[in-house]
Amino acid sequence: MRIIEQPREMQEHCLRARCEGHTVGLVPTMGYYHEGHLRLMRWARQQADLLCVSLFVNPTQFGPSEDLASYPRDFDRDCELASREGVDVLFAPKSGSMYGPRHATWVEVPELSRPLCGRSRPTHFRGVCTVVCKLLNLALPHFAVFGRKDWQQLAVVTRMARDLDLPTEIVGRPIVREPDGLAMSSRNTYLSEAEREQAAHIFAGLKAAQQWVEQGVCDTSDLLERLQRFYGAHIPAGQIDYLEIVDPHELTQVSSVGGQALLAVAVYLGKARLIDNMLLEG
Q: Is 201 a catalytic residue?
């Protein structure tokens, strides 16, 4: 596995591969790998001649009081895990090489960035969009793979790539969960034992909501009230950031579940902010 730190070197390497007719795939990450990351790599490995993984804790997607400094990191372990999965290139730039001292350009998709996580993290998706756009310009991949745990991120990046005519297919892959249903996340390491037990009820609540829909409860206000009571009873240490049912593509609120609707949640639990979602089938 080749480790590249300089953006220009990364671009030259990937451009050469693409010009030679090789299929280039990219898995953007912030590191501290778990099974969710590794499954993205395994899927991409099957599709790509040259598999690139970026490892970059992007400072511009963290707010002033968020966990940039404490975000979990273990570079040597990540390198070993990526190598085991057959990654060809690990792009691990320094922050200064991605954002120079006079950096003044941002990429945004405002309408999709405002709801859900955007309400409590108003600059988050501007940072995400900008760094993903830069990574796509550097790796020049035929496809880039993202997990569906952050559905809003996937929607924002997909729209950004489409609107800017970037020659990259954005691929969403299923959420990977722990045996008790908790969506895998690097931030799960923040949870205490008691918090970890309660965290499993985030997914349990999503499954309960799907059951209510199957029983004929389709009004979103009713569903969200039921879910709020469920979380109050089963996650007493948690603080809800949002519970919303929205259109899966436009992320606008819907009044009832007819066909497909996205149930998205964010819960503060201890030092962790945990997100999850489920497509409800009306």
A: no
Strands 238-246 and 50-55: unpaired
Per-residue pLDDT tens over the stretch 94-120? 999 999 999 999 999 999 999 999 999
Q: What is the pTM of this model?
A: 0.96
Residue 265 exposed, middle or buried by CB count within 10 Å (0-12, 13-18, 19+): buried
Burial group, residue 211, by CB count within 10 angstroms (0-12, 13-18, 19+): exposed
Q: Which strands make up the sheet holding 272-281, listed edge to edge?
A: 238-246, 260-269, 272-281
Q: How far apart are CA 27 and CA 54, in angstroms?
A: 6
d(CA 185, CA 207): 19
Please give the structure tokens belonging to residue 11.
């671009």
Domain spans of the chain, in order of start: 2-173, 186-277
Looking at residue 79, its pLDDT comes to 98
List the CATH code of the domain at 2-173. Answer: 3.40.50.620
CATH of domain 186-277: 3.30.1300.10
Q: d(Cα 252, Cα 248) in Å, to the nearest integer? A: 8
**Which one of the listed residues 13, 37, 124, 201 is annotated catalytic?**
37
Under DSSP, the state recorded for 17 is H
Beta bridge partners of 196: none
Task: Say if residues 194 and 237 touch (Cβ distance below 8 Å).
Answer: yes
Residue found under tokens 């259109």:
247
